[in-house]
Structures are given as structure tokens and as C-alpha cells.
Amino acid sequence: MTEPDTSFETVRHAILERKTEKALCDIERPLEAKSQSALAQELLELAHWAPFHKPAHETHRQTDLNSVVPWRMYVLEAQDCRKLLSTFKEWSKDDPSWLEGKIPNLLASADLLFQVTWLPNPKQTENQNAFEGTKDNMEHIAAAASAVQNMLIGATAKGLPNYWASGGLLLRPEIFKLLGISQEEMVLGSIFIFPKHLGNKEQVKIVPGSWREKRGPIEKKKKKLDIV
Ligand SMILES: Cc1cc2nc3c(=O)[nH]c(=O)nc-3n(C[C@H](O)[C@H](O)[C@H](O)COP(=O)(O)O)c2cc1C
Predict the structure, then answer these.
(1) Under 8 Å between Cβ of 175 and 103
(2) CA separation for the pair 217, 14 (Å, rounded)
(3) pTM value?
(4) Could you report the per-residue pLDDT of 44-93, keeping only the tens digit for each?
(5) Does 166 contact ligand 1 (Cβ within 6 A)?
(6) Cβ 20 vs Cβ 208: under 8 Å
(7) Which of 131, 153, 154, 222 has the fewest CB atoms below 10 angstroms from its CB?
(8) What's the pLDDT score for residue 128?
(9) What is the 3-state secondary structure (H, E, C) of 62-114?
(10) How far is the CA of 87 from the centre of ligand 1 (A)?
(11) What is the pLDDT of residue 1?
């Protein structure tokens, strides 16, 4: 029994250690950009093995990215994040909103950014919503979310601060175009992985998740059933 308990403790430790850490860096003093392609591959392997149930619709499988899993990941390494920040600075000369919010600060510090999309089934009806509230779509989102969580747990186990952002500026159509992402895909989140030892960097401020301490007790979200 020792072996399974040890595995459980290892996984439990990583899950309980995971936390939102937004590493907000002064955009005029970005961190050095080191290549992290091996790390990206390691985290992508964890995503790859996440559960999924319904295959991506065939309309999402017409390019080289033709996996049956209902999500895609667009990987930006540190140097790409810094270049994207430079692009934002350039665009801000005409439209200052490109430097609003936290995304520019995160691009100044991230080692990796995974722009994660999930793949909605084509609409069967004419409605105003971006995607239909079907069971298949629910399962696509759930599968994509479990892939993301695998990566966050893996990054945490490696001691790397990480952050799941909704996207902010990265949800704009200009960014879909720049990154070559189809408008048929829905961004589930922008996953930032940061270098270790950020506490030593005076230009970086770490901000926790606003809901971190507000989960409430386990008892408030589960009910023990006694079937008679
Ligand atoms: C789908 C999703 C989207 C999120 N988007 C944002 C975001 O846009 N901005 C933000 O500050 N935090 C975002 N978060 C992080 C949550 O705020 C954070 O998980 C929560 O406060 C709990 O903190 P913890 O991750 O440290 O447990 C997001 C988390 C999830 C799961």
C-alpha cells in the first residue's frame, strides 16, 4: 500500500500547492526571454492525456491541427511574448487601449503563454449566442478545462508560478488574426507560466486570485446521500 499512498500524496501536494499567481512586470523592464520549448512540450504532454469524450467536429479538423480532441493550444515562448508586447506598444500609438489591463504586464514576464481554445460544434439553429448550449459543447469545454488543469498542476509540481486568465486583450479579433486562430474557435483561457524566483525581481509584482480564500468549506458544496 505504500506506493499508491505516495503517489496520492505527490498529486495532492501539487493540487493543493497550485494557486493563481499573476506576475505583473513593468512593461518597460521585461524579464529576459529564455527558450522554454522543452518545458512547453512537457506541459503539452500532460494536456494530451487529459480525458475527453466527444471528438471535435470535422469542420475543425481540416488543417494540420486535425486532432480529435476538442481543444487546441497555441504556444508562445518568452521571446514571442516579448514580441507581442512590442506589437501592443506599437498599436497603442493609435489606440491606447492596447496597453490597458494586465495582459501587457504578463507578456513582460511570462516564460510561456498557451492560448487555449475549445472547438464548438457548428450551430444547428440561427441564434445570437456564440455557441449552442448542447451537451456535446459542454463536454468539449469540460475536456479542454481538464487539459488546462493538468498543465497547471504540472507547472506547480515544477515550482513554476502560473495563471489562468480569461484573455482580456488576447480575445480581440486582431489577436486571432495575428496568431492564426480560426474565429470558429472559442478562447477558453490564456495560460501563463512564469519563471521561478520572481520574488527577487523588483520590477515584478505577484497578485493572487481574488477568489482564493473565498471557496468556503467543503461541507457547503457536497451532500452525503443515504439511499434507502
Ligand atoms: C476559467 C477561468 C478564468 C479565469 N480568468 C481570470 C481572469 O481573467 N482574471 C483573473 O484575475 N483571474 C482569472 N482566473 C483565476 C481565478 O480568479 C482564480 O482561480 C480564483 O481567484 C481562485 O484562486 P486560485 O486559482 O489561487 O485558487 C480565472 C480562472 C478560471 C478557472
Answers:
(1) no
(2) 20
(3) 0.97
(4) 999 999 999 999 999 999 999 999 999 999 999 999 999 999 999 999 99
(5) yes
(6) yes
(7) 222
(8) 87
(9) CCCCCCCCCEEEEEEEHHHHHHHHHHHHHHHCCCHHHHCCCHHHHHCCCCEEE
(10) 26
(11) 52
Q: What is the pLDDT of residues 144-192, one digit of tens each?
A: 999 999 999 999 999 999 999 999 999 999 999 999 999 999 999 999 9
Our answer on whether the CB atom of 164 is closer than 6 Å to any ligand 1 atom is yes
Q: Which residue, chain included where needed, has cell 505583473?
A: 24
CB 49 near ligand 1, within 6 Å: no
Cell of 89: 506598444
Q: Which atom of ligand 1 is nearest to the CA of 215?
A: 22
DSSP state of 26: -
- Domains assigned to the chain: 18-211 (3.40.109.10)
Rounded to the nearest 5°, which phi and psi values hold at 227?
Answer: -80, 130
3-class SS at 3? helix
The answer to whether the beta carbons of residues 22 and 102 sit under 8 Å apart is yes
> Which residues, 6 or more positions from 32, have their beta carbon under 8 angstroms from its beta carbon?
78
Ligand 1 site, residue 207, Cβ cutoff 6 A = no
